[in-house]
Amino acid sequence: MRGNKISILSQRSLLLTMIIATMVKSVPLNYGDALTKSILFFEGQRSGYLPASQRMTWRKNSALNDGSDINMRMDGGYYDAGDNVKFHFPMAFTTTMLAWSVIEFGDLMGPDLQHAFEAIRWGTDYFLKATIYPNVVIAQIGDPNSDHSCWERPEDMDTSRKTYVVTTTKPGSEVSAEIAAALAASSIALSKNDGRYSRNLLLRAKQVFDFANNHRGSYNDSIGDGVCPFYCDFNGYMDELVWGAAWLYKASNDITYWNFVKSNIQSLGPLTEFGWDAKHAGINVLISERVMNDPSNQNPFISNADNLICSLLPNSPTKAVTYSKGGLLFKLGPSNLQHVTSYSFLLIVYARYMQVNHKTVNCGNVVAKPADLVNLAKTQVDYVLGNNPLRMSYMVGYGQKFPQKIHHRASTMPSIDVYPKHIKCRDGDKYFESQSPNINLLTGAIVGGPAEDDSYQDSRFNVTQSEPTTYINAPFVGVLAYFKQRNP
Ligand SMILES: *[C@@H]1O[C@H](CO)[C@@H](O)[C@H](O)[C@H]1NC(C)=O
Ligand SMILES: *[C@@H]1O[C@H](CO)[C@@H](O)[C@H](O)[C@H]1NC(C)=O
């Protein structure tokens, strides 16, 4: 007994030492500031005519003639990352995740909610154009090979702005179904903001889903080297079809979509991936909201979602990700922070549903409560914002120390305001190769992030580390809103 007491005491003092150590080490974080910036970032990615309300003013109108090669007006939308291509597949996923962020956490966003609405609408206005003709979906604009061979401002582009289209004979079920998901999710997110517009989005979502489902095929084959190896659909289009149906069900309550989800979920298997290509884990978490308290509990959604949680928790026996010494989640593949932000989102959303239903998750002998999921997400958010071995934030313009040389064309070159003359294809190289920080601050951009040893090379050449993308940021918008209200 005595021995026990001593060990408990020493455990306590050890714990106390650890708490003090983390208190001393940690950087104070401002989730509200990070939230504002995470949304502002999307203004820096805008293509087309910029509105008078544009806050990131170093960016100007660009790519105004997009679509002219097929006699369509396709100005607008978002540039994907550090290049100037409009890849509609990841753009649609980005829009879906912005919408989901608002659906779950919009009421916690305060004055930023209006900007979040605008960010969604910048996507949906564009997708309404891309789907204006029945049985045709504009799948991408800009030839990636041509784009990547230049380092140009979007405002100067003279690369090939080829338009890629999918049709009934050259189908693209993944890109079409993801656009349907984006339109359906946005119709929910914007329903209180603009009812008429929201109903219009839902109507279009149904049409686009039918096209995706009735004319099945991968845009890999229909578009070929326009999309591969850039945003190849690696794991097939069934996940997008089920995901699209799940969003349509949530938006419309139409049982047809629920039946589609139920009869096709088994074909996806228990994959725990979630990102622009794989929607599996997102489907299960999304559907779990409805079926968690289902007494028959014969659905696979809850067990699949539980498997996801068990694949993430650091002390779970079925953990399928790794954690760096500094505590950052890692999963194979480039731009690691895309996994960090999207999994953090799912952790918080699932924790909320668990809370409502008084549910816990069993991972072998480890029992996880909602708070465990939230705490894990918090360690990830805090790492991204500065509580990491390098004491740096991975969000541009946030905190004292952040990436200075991000791989992003517009951000490296002077604004048209400062240098109105055309900068030709390879004349941008000197900005790319410069040892100086980027000229324009792409505020709020989250980069690909550090290596597994927690090191970060602040270099434009290190693309997987220093390039931001829209789908790294989108789920983080919701996550930051959650932590802002929890810990203002
Ligand atoms: C798309 O192409 C990639 C790369 O070649 C391949 O791995 C994947 O299986 C293809 N997907 C489909 C749905 O054909
Ligand atoms: C990027 O930087 C990391 C160190 O943080 C290094 O391990 C990796 O090899 C670099 N990649 C490239 C392409 O330079």
From TrEMBL:
Pfam hit, one: Glyco_hydro_9
Catalysed conversion reaction: Endohydrolysis of (1->4)-beta-D-glucosidic linkages in cellulose, lichenin and cereal beta-D-glucans
Top-rank taxon: Eukaryota
PROSITE patterns in alphabetical order: GH9_2 (PS00592)
Keywords for this protein: Carbohydrate metabolism, Cellulose degradation, Glycosidase, Hydrolase, Polysaccharide degradation, Signal
The enzyme's E.C. designation: 3.2.1.4
Any one GO biological process: cellulose catabolic process
One term of GO molecular function: cellulase activity
Leader sequence residues: 1-26
Domain Glycoside hydrolase family: 31-480
Active-site residues from the entry: H407
Family the entry assigns: Belongs to the glycosyl hydrolase 9 (cellulase E) family.
Name used for this protein in its record: Endoglucanase
